[in-house]
Amino acid sequence: MAEHGGTVRIFVDNLEQVKFLEEYEKKQSKARKWSAFIKVDGGQKRAGTSPKPESFKPFISTVFASPAISVYGFYSHAGDSYGSTSLEQTVSYLTREVQLANDAAAMALEVLAESPNRDIHNQPFVLSVGSTPAAHSASAKSKMTSQLHGVLELHAGNYPMLDLQQLHTALIDRPRISQRVLATVISYYPGRGKDGLDEAMCDAGAIAMSKDTGRIPGFGGIVGKSWRLGRISQEHGTLEQMPPDPSSVQTDSTLNVGDIIQIVGQHACLISAGHPWYYIVDSNIEGGADKVIDIWVPWKGW
Q1: pLDDT, tens digit, for every residue of 174-186?
Q2: What confidence score (pLDDT) does residue 302 get?
Q3: pTM of the full predicted structure?
Q4: Which range scores top for mean pLDDT: 2-11, 164-173, 216-225, 238-247?
Q5: Which residues of 157-172 are buried (b: 16+ CB within 10 A; e: fewer)?
Q6: Which CATH number fits domain 164-296: 2.40.360.10, 2.40.37.20, 1.10.10.10, 3.90.226.10?
């Protein structure tokens, strides 16, 4: 990958990982150092080493002493920011996350200053933080810049596509969502749904849409229709008719067998992982959303 300008960078949050890397490099004809982010737990208990000084300082001291690791920076992911429902809440999440990575870098610099290996680190740490909601509130960066012990990096994997989970945060509106799954209505059930509303079947189920849910009910919304993907099996989904909502564009209650529908899912990351390629359209050019201008094939190397 290096010959193409790429870098493989790893996460480290446990000293056993460091031992494995050291043992691996001992067996190589030419040992190297792995560029690594130190993953810090922001309180979500999802991944990461504890940021408490009594455990973090001995941990980072051992990492600095390793011949197999070059510390690139400190990484955190505020997954709980997906529960935000306002800009103020999201700014608060991002500010706390930046502070977490910054505190880790400050402790690392303290340890490094007393280390015989202090000369090995000669570039600013990268403080990599964020989530898609946090990216929409990146003004929080200005609150921290003058105090940073490194260079701030904002990561946001879902930012280009967006989905119903992001819609619930109130930081985006529906036109910003760029992902759709095309499905075909394959059966219809008049009056079978709640309060005598209709239901239908489509050929997109859990494999096409994932089983992720969110604060907005259902597994997906149908573009332009007062319907939602309410239940799913592996290969098919049950569409539920909803009362038309005059305050939104989802007012068309008609649906027929054979119709091709566009479904906006709950979580674009997991949905896109289930498809081998993506058809790309651009509403800003002639032909609009009906013209495929490219096909993107995702890299699935793991």
Answers
A1: 889 999 999 999 9
A2: 57
A3: 0.83
A4: 216-225
A5: ebbebbbbbbbbbebb
A6: 2.40.37.20
CB atoms within 10 A of CB 254: 10
- Calculate the CA dihedral of residues 209, 267, 11, 54 and round it to 10 degrees: -130
Place of tokens 């992001």: 166
Q: Does domain 2-154 have CATH number 3.20.20.10?
A: yes
Contacts of 23 by beta carbon, 8 Å cutoff, 6+ apart: none
The whole-angstrom distance between residue 21's C-alpha and the CA centroid of its chain comes to 27
224's tokens: 């332009």
Q: Which tokens belong to 202?
A: 């489509």
User: 281: buried, middle or exposed (CB in 10 Å: 19+, 13-18, 0-12)?
Assistant: middle
Both tokens assigned to 259: 């119709």
* Beta-strand relationship, 260-265 and 220-222: antiparallel
